[in-house]
């Protein structure tokens, strides 16, 4: 790899967003987003469908360019104008749609764009790295020489996660990484998140599963309709969190819980 | 699992995958792949057997050694163009102007070298550079303006043809000197027998050598390796086949040097596509452009390289065909050249949908196309019929490609 930024000290601010806005034509996907990520910290990004979580991740991955706002990385203002640049700076991403090439095999996908010895591909070394990485994630992948098209959804997700680890990043962003995973693999991914946090990396995780979020997150950042809607700790009650996500204390989640509680009360009485 | 692998290697820990190293296993692997739509070279082999049976029944001259030597001369010119087509098809794009480009290059040789007295190497470089430049224009139109290659190269087809007619001027045709090296290369030069036999040994030898070193590396790294027996068997079959073919060609004139150049270019392209980062990126961009971009691949540069390579190889094909015909004319590059070059790549197994193909598809495909064309010429059929038949063959190839693709999708093979 090229000369990478030094490893940041624990607690140091790696990434900070100020007033980041992204418009797609008439749609404002993100408005005035403020976000800080520190080394050795797991930040959970939560919000309803269409809240703008994936858009924010794509802005940081260099896939989309923000319409307005500034991004600071390691204390310096940066423009992330291509995915290659973000990767080179040490921002790795697992996209919600995974972004894998179905016609290539697992090894080729893992090393895509960063193959070992570009003029004489070192297939053996790449395959060995692939197996060790996948083992770390407790992956259940029968063969790394089969095209991605033949893998299950969860296996593909594991490949995408493994790929993000390959380049020794400073920040990892995982957009719903456990959505398709089995019980053991989800636990492995959560373990992995803790491991990379302890190594001093910053982690952004997007998930709709509040249990997972509470299990690993140090801070919970809520987005609602493309805007910041509060920062919470994992100790925050479910009710407050749901209220921040949906924007009302009176919502379908609280109504349902109220109904269940009432029913439970009714049967015991 | 087979028993000779008592210690499980890193890549064979999953009990669900069948690993069969026996010959029967190899055959079963092969039929599995065919059923799932991974046809590889099979359509070509079937096609060639069919063609040679039919044509040699109609006219025994077809299989005569010297006719086959002529066939190889013809293959080299359009085959080189087809190598470039493989590159653009790999990205799911197309270049419809390769015929015109080859015609322009052939005209440039005549005008610069014969008429203007420029030295031959310089004229060749100028023609190749023009090709590279036109490819760069297509890539820029594609990358910056999002212009589909189908449209830009279609307009290029006409514009370049116009340029070819313009520089040839009213005479319309320039004869190249017969005694020159270029024409000798295009019509006469044959590899010495000892050299062609030696070169025939090379692929098998390289196969064993590379295979052994990969085997050693894989075993050292704790991975399974392919059984030695199968490797040796494959190499032996390849060598026997090649030496047999060379022997047969030497019953006639022998192996044309020009065909040797074509095969050399195919070997280089094959290496580039399968063993370098550039080739991996080509497959990735053709398979999923956005995923390739997000992996940090410079997608625009990949398009640029493919379009430039395609037009440059088309120009080289044009130069070779000028050498073959000993003339630069208004007819050069027109007619069925375009279609033959594209058809060859598709027949050989390069997909029109992108992300799948190989340099060898151009070699095998062009042999099929030229065999048909040669056979029909021997039967004294007019070009009208030849066009119709070649068009039909291309249609069949595309249908096979589409069906195979559907089958691959349903079998999860990308
Ligand atoms: N490329 C695009 N073009 C136009 N609009 C877009 C684009 N990408 C996202 N949007 C819009 O931006 C908004 C936020 O989308 P985003 O994908 O970020 O939501 P999300 O929070 O990730 O939702 P989910 O939980 O469903 O994944 C949506 O209204 C969506 O329609
Ligand atoms: Mg999303």
From TrEMBL, chain A:
Keywords: ATP-binding, Nucleotide-binding
Record flagged with keyword RNA-binding: no
Residues covered by the ABC transporter domain: 15-250
A single GO molecular function term of this UniProt record: ATP hydrolysis activity
Keyword Nucleotide-binding: yes
Gene3D superfamilies: P-loop containing nucleotide triphosphate hydrolases (3.40.50.300)
Record protein name field: ABC transporter ATP-binding protein
InterPro entries: AAA+_ATPase, ABC_carbohydrate_import_ATPase, ABC_transporter-like_ATP-bd, P-loop_NTPase
Automatic annotation (TrEMBL), chain B:
Entry's localization field: Cell membrane
Alphabetically ordered keywords of this record: Cell inner membrane, Cell membrane, Membrane, Sugar transport, Transmembrane, Transmembrane helix, Transport
One MF term in the entry's GO annotations: transmembrane transporter activity
Chain ranges passing through the membrane: 39-62, 68-91, 149-168, 188-210, 231-249, 255-273, 302-325, 362-379
GO CC list: plasma membrane
Keyword check for Cell membrane: yes
Pfam families found in the cross-reference section: BPD_transp_2
Topology in the lipid bilayer: Multi-pass membrane protein
Its biological purpose: Part of the binding-protein-dependent transport system for D-xylose. Probably responsible for the translocation of the substrate across the membrane.
Identification of the protein by name: Xylose transport system permease protein XylH
